[in-house]
Design a protein that fits this description.
The chain is α/β, with parallel strands linked by helices. 41% of the residues lie in helices and 26% in strands. It has a five-stranded mixed β-sheet. Helix 1 packs parallel to helix 3.
Length: 144
């Protein structure tokens, strides 16, 4: 079965001073790398931005999408927190507004447009694509 494979990473060096993100999209025999940096943000925001920017690159919902991230924050969102956050109007169990609410809402909207599976991959380990997006995100952070 054909599918879009996406690897993402966010980087914050000397948090909160240097920020970058990267995503690698694979479909059939083609690969595309997108990356960037932003000011006044956090590592978690860069992790989310990488996935958002990647999904915005996907032009059709014809194929399933597999996203690989080394962020437990992102993985826990989809597997543990999202249903309750939405049910509670984007508030945590402590009745606080969810941090990065604007990014979570954008990501949630994108997820509803696609058939997405998200998986965790151990960062800085043996996955060549995870290592590649990490390296590029770090370069973006250094150049921000």
């Amino acid at each position: 079965m054909r599918k879009v494979i996406i690897y993402t990473d966010g980087s914050c060096l000397w948090n909160p001073w240097k920020w970058g993100w990267c995503a690698l999209l694979k479909f059939k025999d083609k690969e595309k790398i997108i990356s960037g940096s932003e000011n006044n943000t956090t590592n978690n925001q860069m992790e989310l931005t990488a996935i958002i920017k990647a999904l915005e690159e996907v032009k059709t919902n014809k194929y399933p999408i597999e996203i690989y991230t080394d962020s437990k924050y992102v993985l826990d969102w989809i597997t543990k927190w999202i249903k309750n956050w939405k049910k509670n109007w984007w508030k945590t169990s402590n009745k606080q507004v969810v941090k990065n609410k604007d990014l979570w809402e954008k990501l949630d909207k994108l997820f509803t447009n696609f058939n997405v599976k998200i998986s965790w991959v151990k960062g800085h380990w043996t996955d060549k694509y995870n290592n590649l997006v990490d390296e590029i995100a770090r370069k973006e952070a250094l150049n921000s």
